[in-house]
Design a protein that fits this description.
Blueprint (H helix, E strand, L loop, with lengths): L1 E2 L2 E2 L20 E5 L5 E6 L2 H11 L12 E8 L10 E5 L2 E5 L2 E6 L4 E6 L8 H16 L5 E3 L1 E6 L2 E6 L6 H10 L4 E3 L3 E4 L5 E3 L5 E3 L12 E4 L2 E6 L9 E2 L1 E9 L4 E5 L1 H8 L10 H11 L4 E6 L3 H10 L1 H6 L4
Parallel strand pairs: 4-5, 5-9, 12-20, 20-22
Antiparallel strand pairs: 1-2, 3-4, 6-7, 7-8, 8-9, 10-14, 11-12, 11-13, 14-15, 15-19, 16-18, 17-18, 21-22
Helix pairs in contact: 1-2, 3-6
């Protein structure tokens, strides 16, 4: 298709764009819908569009026609070289990334732009996650998708969210829930849509565990996550995005045996403690999101040394959990 003298493309929303159909001209654009939000991407080369397709794969869903349209511009050009890799800086609604990349995002205007040294820069999954994921999520989390520091799985239309600080056992529980047959939302962060409706979103990613907690699987790479060495356990991609229209929150607590105790909303939110770095940038939005999903109460989930015991306890109490879920 021609537009203003440029070759353009438009990917089908919620599908994986066919790379054989990508244009080869000087400029390309495509529409994606990560977490159900429209994202228009314009790039100076089709391979940059492919990189966005790879970044969004598994967490696209039909966009809300009444929602915002976000914009991302990708170009190839000279960038500052830095052996330390991408460094992120934030001021208010603005974000910048430097170091082998030059990128800026303004969530207030729903726009981001990025320049990389070559068209293959994002073929490195770590670099793609550090830059593309960062830019896209910066825009999304300030335009209707509030991050909650929790792992989670779904039972029908209900999300069971397992919230706790780093190291509290969220990822181990996520892997145990997956092993028990529950569709997984995330092992660390879920996203709340709380505008005209409540919807809980997840992004399919490997489960990251401390090496001593991880099963010894061939090809499970060791990665640095938030300054900590974690083993990445890849899980089969779900056939379609995992979402939920109701949620119940479990606050994690360490103990000798697995147990479940109902909490009133104020006690549940207080038990979560202060927000960790990064999440604290959205304190107002996260507080509102937590109030929304705990308005019918929440639960204290005490963990034993075996994550599967906690998941079995939750499975045995699903009627109670679903009854108290907020929607």
């Amino acid at each position: 298709m021609e537009q203003a003298g440029r070759r353009v493309m438009s990917a089908e929303i919620g599908t994986t764009p066919a790379t054989d159909k990508l244009p080869t001209g000087d400029c390309a654009f495509a529409y994606f819908s990560p977490l159900g939000v429209m994202l228009r991407v314009e790039a100076s080369h089709p391979r940059l569009i492919e990189a966005v397709a790879a970044a969004c794969r598994g967490w696209e869903a039909p966009a809300d026609p009444q929602g915002p349209t976000l914009h991302l511009s990708l170009k190839v050009g000279p960038v500052p070289v830095d052996d330390t890799g991408p460094l992120v800086d934030t001021v208010g609604l603005r974000l910048s990334i430097s170091g082998d990349v030059e990128a800026h995002a303004d969530a207030g205007h729903g726009q981001a732009r990025c320049r990389v040294a070559n068209v293959g820069a994002f073929e490195d999954p770590a670099f793609r996650e550090q830059v593309l994921d960062c830019l896209i999520l910066w825009l999304l989390t300030r335009n209707g998708r509030t991050p909650i520091h929790a792992s989670g799985f779904v039972v029908g239309p209900t999300a069971i969210l397992l919230a706790g600080r780093s190291g509290s056992g969220k990822s181990c529980l996520a892997l145990a829930a997956h092993s028990a047959g529950f569709p997984l939302l995330s092992d660390d962060t879920v996203y709340l849509e709380t505008g005209r409706r409540l919807r809980v979103w997840g992004i399919p990613r490997p489960v990251h565990l401390f090496p001593e907690d991880a099963p010894q699987l061939p090809g499970a790479a060791i990665r640095l996550r938030n300054g900590k060495r974690k083993r990445a356990i890849a899980l089969p991609a779900p056939p379609q995005p995992v979402t939920a229209d109701a949620a119940t929150l479990c606050v994690l607590h360490r103990g000798d045996r697995a147990s479940l105790e109902w909490l009133d909303p104020a006690t549940a939110i207080a038990a979560l403690g202060p927000l960790e770095p990064g999440f604290d940038l959205l304190a107002t939005e996260i507080e509102a999101g937590l109030c929304r999903i705990t308005r019918r109460g929440a639960w204290r989930l005490t963990l034993s040394a075996e994550p599967k015991e906690a998941i079995a306890l939750l499975a045995a109490n699903l009627p109670r959990l679903i009854e108290h879920a907020s929607s």
